[in-house]
């Protein structure tokens, strides 16, 4: 390798290493309270932790991949739950990592991915300098939306992949590998984020790539990108996507969200550092969902103006910012963007308008980077002191939301760490749920609650399930007896003697995917699982077997192979194309310097 080329390569990798180190610093400052304190979150903040604990407990008991969650609602499907994280759950189960340990490090990794993603997106798509692009990534990574949503709802961590998806989509207009990669990354977001990332990422993709359909000579490339992205996404996400779609068909819900905001109420979402929300707005500003501070907001306002005036114009970031803010305003009229979007399938289920602030923050962070980039270019020919002053102001703008978010985190970390070993508490049973603020312990204790602590989708739970140490199945009165009941993560094994054809009442919520090797399953009037059994001594095995998951898992395996083949073939053909395009040197000519 020639010295000049070697120096350029070393410089490039050194810059990337510095960006990674800076992203790790931002992530540590955003999450240091979680990394230092021996406490975990309480209340609803334990929902994501409990999902990880379900995987860990099931693997530790040798019961394999959990498909049914018996810790809440009298039992319900695990994978269709939009808050269930399949990939990180497999990590927690296979490596026996506690849920609160995952809560410390998984969102921290998400902040690193978010900062580096916005940096790469800003460099390649918006042609920002290294420092302004890193500033944009730090603004997004330090924002209240990232710090708070990643902590309170870990299923939002995959929102950190959205800037990477946007970057790959732009590159995918000219490179098939990048187009397939964008769909694969979106599929990964679905596997570990479900309905809390993919709908927002699709809106961001529409805003970033949609206008390019009307640019000269780009329509065909954008349509090809959309086709490849959609195919690879559906295949890779199949294991989580198929079960979720089946549940949406079985239990459709059409909530009508009436929350709305004025433009004057949006500004405090970014600069109000008090904990709480606005009166009359149940989903606005609580937990500092958008806080970036007045300095970063000032950078963004200046950058939005620069993006519209200076050439080359960078309209995508401004479009994300403006449309994101319009969606955050909610249903302020029946022709509002939020009201129109809510008429589409899946988007009708997203009844929290303020969560669209993540899209606005992507545009805001890029606008802030554009402002710093323009300012550094203006003072480039003047004294370096002015450049240092601008960088110092940018550092203060980043540190402000980090401190504010840490103060908010102190209000949540009130519970001690979870036990790292399974608690032997006898056979599975239902408890009354009075200790729901420690619901993340339920899987390790092998207990559940008959009611729902939280319903992320409209799933009908059973009623009147018995609480306490009782057998988890019984026959009709006078029809025989149940001698033994073994409860596993995905099923029941019941030994019984029936004096006549009767009904076996299993203490679980019914689902159409429950199958029995003896008799036929059905739903009771109270929503409980029942099995019609014949007379005689029987060994009844009732298993939860969702066909949508097995078909989806096959699609995911095929999708991973498909993406790997495309990337491998593209990598093999790329050097050949480059070699074919290189002009031949005449005989005896000196080599061309690099």
Describe this protein's structure.
Helices cover 52% and strands 11% of the residues. With 594 residues, it is an alpha+beta fold. It folds into 2 domains: 19-67 and 75-413, no CATH class; 473-545. The strands form 5 sheets. Strands 7-10-13-12 form a 4-stranded antiparallel beta sheet, with no helix packed on it. A 4-stranded antiparallel beta sheet has the order 8-9-14-11, with no helix packed on it. Strands 1-4 form a two-stranded antiparallel ribbon. The chain starts with a helix and ends in a 13-residue tail after the last helix. Mean pLDDT is 88; it is low at 575-594.
Question: What is this entry, summarized?
Answer:
With 594 residues, the protein is α+β, with helices and mostly antiparallel strands.
Secondary structure topology:
Blueprint: H1 3-36, E1 39-41, H2 47-60, E2 68-69, E3 76-77, H3 86-94, H4 99-125, H5 130-142, H6 144-152, H7 162-171, H8 176-193, H9 198-209, H10 219-236, H11 238-250, H12 263-271, H13 294-309, H14 315-328, H15 337-341, H16 357-378, H17 384-409, E4 413-416, E5 429-430, H18 442-445, E6 447-448, E7 473-475, E8 480-488, E9 491-498, E10 502-509, E11 514-516, E12 520-523, E13 528-533, E14 536-544, H19 547-581
Parallel strand pairs: 5-6
Antiparallel strand pairs: 1-4, 2-3, 7-10, 8-9, 9-14, 10-13, 11-14, 12-13
Helix pairs in contact: 1-4, 1-5, 1-17, 2-3, 2-4, 3-8, 4-5, 4-6, 4-7, 5-16, 5-17, 7-8, 7-9, 8-10, 8-11, 8-19, 10-19, 11-19, 13-16, 14-16
